């Protein structure tokens, strides 16, 4: 082997040169750079966190009774788990119109679209096309922000509740939801909604912040000087992961 | 050493044309799967079709995840070692989910039949 495999005392002039030995930084496991590999491992650990949330959701949901009558005869009760399309059926600007899951479908589309613009930014980075990177980053930031605002509206509607409300055990009619009471069903239903969509929303918010930083760095020419746009790829991985989590939340919280 | 080399066609001063056909194809696949998921949710509302409906929905979700992770996150084109490193722990996670959902059903049944 031409290169020394352990750290050797070297002359001052070669100290700054990149190390190429197998054990001092010259080897890339899995042919992926350090940063990308660590991002993959971070995302795996983040998948554990969301996996824990969804596992908790699955277990608690299956512990509760299901509504066994006709879907059209469904009404809210703390006795059984609510049918999601009866809870999430409002659309901004449409008053009391019944649009089951309509707004969630739109939010899903927005997030998938932001994922596509993110891939396009990564692709532009491969071509060292600064203008295109800026363009697609801006689109991704825009769609990410729209998603966050949509979620804020969704939360607002969930917290304020439906017109009819639900008769509680103490004889009062309760509208909306908080952490200890809700009109839709068992207490834990609202708790899990707040925690799961809230944790996902926090991730989207961090993603948007990272993207804004990326846009500033691109504009300043940081990546161009560095000779590669790998940072966009790493943040892209994170952004796709957030989209991936939403795909699962969409199925398990809203559809099933 | 770890700095990735810029692709050959990225000659200084000359920017290559974008090649994005594949990306848009994946996008339309994802939109189509989401539309099917949506249709299935409302077409199979009857109680008797619940298990089948949920199986279809979960299958479609995993298909969507496959496209996002494989193509958008590029995992399909990484080395075998990295693919297994990510996949094996995720499969164990699915196992945990299935185990605790079953446990949940059991707890629910036991609680509601406690005095009968």
UniProtKB/TrEMBL annotation, chain A:
<dbReference type="InterPro" id="IPR024791">
    <property type="entry name" value="Cyt_c/ubiquinol_Oxase_su3"/>
</dbReference>
<dbReference type="InterPro" id="IPR000298">
    <property type="entry name" value="Cyt_c_oxidase-like_su3"/>
</dbReference>
<feature type="transmembrane region" description="Helical">
    <location>
        <begin position="136"/>
        <end position="153"/>
    </location>
</feature>
<feature type="transmembrane region" description="Helical">
    <location>
        <begin position="192"/>
        <end position="216"/>
    </location>
</feature>
<dbReference type="GO" id="GO:0004129">
    <property type="term" value="F:cytochrome-c oxidase activity"/>
</dbReference>
<protein>
    <submittedName>
        <fullName>Cytochrome oxidase subunit III</fullName>
    </submittedName>
</protein>
<feature type="transmembrane region" description="Helical">
    <location>
        <begin position="237"/>
        <end position="255"/>
    </location>
</feature>
<feature type="transmembrane region" description="Helical">
    <location>
        <begin position="101"/>
        <end position="124"/>
    </location>
</feature>
<dbReference type="InterPro" id="IPR035973">
    <property type="entry name" value="Cyt_c_oxidase_su3-like_sf"/>
</dbReference>
<dbReference type="Pfam" id="PF00510">
    <property type="entry name" value="COX3"/>
</dbReference>
<feature type="domain" description="Heme-copper oxidase subunit III family profile">
    <location>
        <begin position="1"/>
        <end position="256"/>
    </location>
</feature>
<dbReference type="GO" id="GO:0019646">
    <property type="term" value="P:aerobic electron transport chain"/>
</dbReference>
<keyword id="KW-0812">Transmembrane</keyword>
<feature type="compositionally biased region" description="Polar residues">
    <location>
        <begin position="1"/>
        <end position="13"/>
    </location>
</feature>
<keyword id="KW-1003">Cell membrane</keyword>
<comment type="similarity">
    <text>Belongs to the cytochrome c oxidase subunit 3 family.</text>
</comment>
<keyword id="KW-0472">Membrane</keyword>
<dbReference type="GO" id="GO:0005886">
    <property type="term" value="C:plasma membrane"/>
</dbReference>
<dbReference type="InterPro" id="IPR013833">
    <property type="entry name" value="Cyt_c_oxidase_su3_a-hlx"/>
</dbReference>
<keyword id="KW-1133">Transmembrane helix</keyword>
<feature type="region of interest" description="Disordered">
    <location>
        <begin position="1"/>
        <end position="24"/>
    </location>
</feature>
<feature type="transmembrane region" description="Helical">
    <location>
        <begin position="37"/>
        <end position="60"/>
    </location>
</feature>
TrEMBL record, chain B:
<dbReference type="GO" id="GO:0005886">
    <property type="term" value="C:plasma membrane"/>
</dbReference>
<feature type="transmembrane region" description="Helical">
    <location>
        <begin position="56"/>
        <end position="75"/>
    </location>
</feature>
<feature type="transmembrane region" description="Helical">
    <location>
        <begin position="81"/>
        <end position="101"/>
    </location>
</feature>
<keyword id="KW-1133">Transmembrane helix</keyword>
<dbReference type="Pfam" id="PF03626">
    <property type="entry name" value="COX4_pro"/>
</dbReference>
<feature type="transmembrane region" description="Helical">
    <location>
        <begin position="23"/>
        <end position="44"/>
    </location>
</feature>
<protein>
    <recommendedName>
        <fullName>Cytochrome C oxidase subunit IV</fullName>
    </recommendedName>
</protein>
<keyword id="KW-1003">Cell membrane</keyword>
<keyword id="KW-0812">Transmembrane</keyword>
<keyword id="KW-0472">Membrane</keyword>
<dbReference type="InterPro" id="IPR005171">
    <property type="entry name" value="Cyt_c_oxidase_su4_prok"/>
</dbReference>
